[in-house]
Amino acid sequence: MLKGFIILLLIVVLIIIIYLIPAWIPVKYAIKEYNFNEYKNYILVKENIYTGAPWLKLGDDKGFYNKNNIYEVWLEGEKIPIITSPTESDNIYLCEVDEKVGEVIIYNMSYEKFKVINWYPVYPIKRETVILPGWLYPAGFLNKYDFEAGIPW
Questions:
Q1: What are the UniProt keywords, alphabetically (predicted)?
Q2: Could you read off the pLDDT of 18-63 as tens digits, one per residue?
Q3: Which of 39, 92, 129, 137 has its CB surrounded by the most CB atoms within 10 Å?
């Protein structure tokens, strides 16, 4: 009985380790706010979970906006993986962009449109965890699970 329990426990630990190893292999590193000055012509965005444009512009190369100046924008170019819980969006992305490239009009609403040249997640990366506690997952980089459909958190 004890031997069977130990074998079962070892199998569970092995599965957890195999599952966590890819979670700790960096694919794209996050940047910290004090490093923003290393980038030129950027905007800060996060996912818009409400109707309208898919992104909220939170700031630009002059810094973060106050809450009254946040507005919806449209991004084209690089696809940004969205690491969010089903109920809220907290991850912020720094997107290097060409100047505003136009406007998108949907249902008589006009949204600024930017072409994304490159993007970086802003530290810390937040994830909704289901299986294991959140401290087991990296906050400083995206891993292969973040780029796959059906994130196994």
A1: Membrane, Transmembrane, Transmembrane helix
A2: 877 888 889 999 999 999 999 989 999 998 888 778 899 999 988 8
A3: 92
Element (H, E) at 21: helix 2-23
Please tell me whether residues 97 and 44 are part of one structural domain.
yes
Q: Rounded to an integer, what distance in angstroms lies between the CA atom of residue 74 and that of residue 53? A: 6
CA atoms within 13 A on the CB side of 58: 15
The DSSP-derived string for 26-77 is: -SEE-B-GGGGGGS-SEEEEEE--SSSSSEEEEEETTEEPPGGG-EEEEEEE
pLDDT value, residue 150: 59
- Residue 11 CA to residue 147 CA, distance in Å, equals 27
Q: Which domain holds residue 87?
A: 35-122
Chain centroid to Cα 43, Å, comes to 14
Q: How many domains does the chain have?
A: 2
Instruction: Please indicate, yes or no, whether residues 58 and 105 belong to a single structural domain of this protein.
Output: yes
What is the average pLDDT value for the chain, to the nearest integer? 84
